[in-house]
Amino acid sequence: MTTERFNMDWFSLKGKVAMVTGANQGLGMAYAAAFAKAGADLFIPHFTEDVSEIKQLIEKEGRKAFFLRGDLTDKDYRKACIDECMNQYGCLDILVNNAGISAFADFDDYPDKYWEMCINLDFNVVYYLSKEAAKIMKAQGGGKIINIGSALSYTSDKNCPPYTAAKTGVLGITRNFANELGQYNIQTNAICPGFLATEVNAQLREDQAFYNKITNRIAAGRWGNLDDLMGAVVFLASKASDYVNGVDINIDGGFFTTL
Question: What is the pTM of this model?
Answer without folding.
Answer: 0.96
